Amino acid sequence: MERVTGIGGVFFRARDPDRLSAWYATHLGVDPAPESYEVSSWWQQAGPTVFAAMPADSAHFGGAQHAWSINFRVTDLDAMVGQLRGAGIDVQVDPEEYPNGRFADLRDPEGNGVQLWEPAGADSRGPA
Prior knowledge:
Strand content: 15-25%
Radius of gyration: 16 Å
Strand order of the largest sheet: 1-4-3-2
Oligomer: single chain
Number of strands: 4
Order of helices and strands: HEHEEEH
Shape: globular
CATH class of the domain at 67-128: Alpha Beta
CATH topology of the domain at 67-128: 2,3-Dihydroxybiphenyl 1,2-Dioxygenase, domain 1
């Protein structure tokens, strides 16, 4: 069976797309969508990705007005959290360490959920 090889894009509505794209670039290092075909899109490192449908009333999204959230893998959660807090961004680190890693949660300027994940266990070793 043919399979997809990864996520090729994440698309979502924003009240101020330019400002929100700049926030992701400045604080998380996610390059904005290229403005021409001569410029490459943002490249990410190979790694595990969770693709999960969740109940419509899930608290994970932070309210009914938010229909999506994104989880970014990071190499050093503590360093990323320090960087974000240094920029005045509120970040909540989950005190529990899970078998698959550590997590922290924040909101982008439009209130969308952003989760940071430092993989551990099987997810840090690569595919079986």
